[in-house]
Amino acid sequence: MTATQPPANAGRTRSTGALESSVLGILWQSLAELSVREVQAQLSAPRPSYSAVMTVLSRLEEKGQVARTTLSPRKIKFHPVRSESDHLAEQLLAILDRARDRQALLAGFAAALSPSEKATLRAALD
C-alpha cells in the first residue's frame, strides 16, 4: 500500500475562493476599472497566470459580482457591481438565512459588537 503524495504545488496555490476574494478586493480598492493584467500585477506571489485571473473575472461576472467594459476586442476592463459593504451585508444575510435560531445568532452577533459598532447599528435601524 502506498501513501498518497500531495501534489508538487501543494501549499503554493490559492483556492479559487481565496483568489476570487483577492480579485474583488483589488477591484474594490481601485478608483478606476482595471484590465486583467492590472489585476494580475496587484496580486501577491505566487502570482496566478493571466488565464487564471481572466477565468476568475469571468466567473465573478457570471455570478453578477463584476461587470466588464469592452473598449476593443483586446482591451477589456472590469469593475465591481456592488460595493464591498453591500457584498458583505449580502453574505451576512445569507448566514442569517441558514441559521436554525435567528434570534440566538443575532443576540450573539450583537454581544460581540463594540460600543461604537452597536451605536452604528442602532442608528441604521432608526
UniProtKB/TrEMBL annotation:
Gene Ontology biological process terms, A to Z: negative regulation of DNA-templated transcription
A GO molecular-function descriptor: DNA binding
Presence of keyword Cell inner membrane: no
Keyword annotations from UniProtKB, A to Z: DNA-binding, Transcription, Transcription regulation
Hydrolase as UniProt keyword: no
InterPro entries cross-referenced by the UniProt entry: BlaI_family, WH-like_DNA-bd_sf, WH_DNA-bd_sf
Similarity remark: Belongs to the BlaI transcriptional regulatory family.
Protein's recorded name: Putative transcriptional regulator
Lineage: Bacteria, Bacillati, Actinomycetota, Actinomycetes, Propionibacteriales
